[in-house]
Write a structure and sequence with these properties.
The protein has about 210 residues and is α+β, with helices and mostly antiparallel strands. It has five helices and nine strands, in the order αβββαβαβββαββα. The longest helix is centred in the last third of the chain and has 24 residues.
């Protein structure tokens, strides 16, 4: 699989995303993790402990949707099941991206029960939103070292609240996704802009 054209193409796109996000300060140190779908059963995902601004071929590996490691000698992100749950939920999802910006982290602590983004034009960057006159809920989940349990909580929430485009983990960062790596990058950019607006509005409010 790692010799396939699809694997190499997805690795290139994810590495480019890592450099972009690092330049913007959204993946400090070794924070963040990225993945992309290879086929109905397998994904490529970043290995554990790599700086996302300096990813090369060695920084990626293949796992299946049961969490089995298909790249011997490599260790995937500890948060792999937060990616897997999304690919299991929706076959149209082609990529899942996780960033650790300061704005996202601060908001996740200020709003432990979730926040709502209201009436921004940039909300139209997300699927099915066609007007700025709308609201987009962003759930916040408590952080835990038990990632499968956290993944189950995310899955349950999304079953009860369809239409979620991303979520925050408290003190941790953003997860969002898209039909392709390019689409997921756009969603990260939109969320990060909106989070910055929320932070600025609170800073400037009398």
């Amino acid at each position: 699989m790692e010799d396939s054209l699809e694997y190499k193409a997805q690795v290139r796109l994810l590495a480019d995303a890592g450099r972009l996000f690092a330049q913007r300060g959204w993946v400090p140190a070794t924070a963040g993790n990225f993945s992309a779908r290879l086929n109905e059963e397998q994904i490529v995902i970043t290995v554990s402990g790599r700086h996302k601004g300096h990813l090369d071929d060695s920084g990626f590996m293949v796992v299946d949707l049961e969490g089995n490691i298909l790249s011997p000698g490599k260790t995937p992100s500890a948060e792999t099941f937060l990616h897997i749950i999304m690919y299991r939920r929706d076959p149209s999802i082609g990529a899942v991206l996780h960033t650790h910006s300061a704005n996202a982290t601060v908001l996740s602590r200020l709003f432990p029960y979730g926040l709502t983004l209201n009436d921004y034009v940039v909300l139209k960057a997300f699927p099915a939103i066609t007007s700025h006159e709308t609201s987009l809920p962003v759930p916040v989940f408590p952080n835990t070292q038990d990632v499968p349990q956290l993944a189950a909580q995310v899955d349950d929430y999304m079953n009860r609240h369809p239409g979620v485009s991303g979520y925050l983990v408290s003190g941790h960062g953003l997860y969002t996704w898209g039909r392709s790596v390019e689409a997921a990058i756009q969603h990260v950019e939109a969320f990060e802009f909106l989070f910055e607006c929320e932070i600025l509005s609170r800073r400037l409010s009398p």
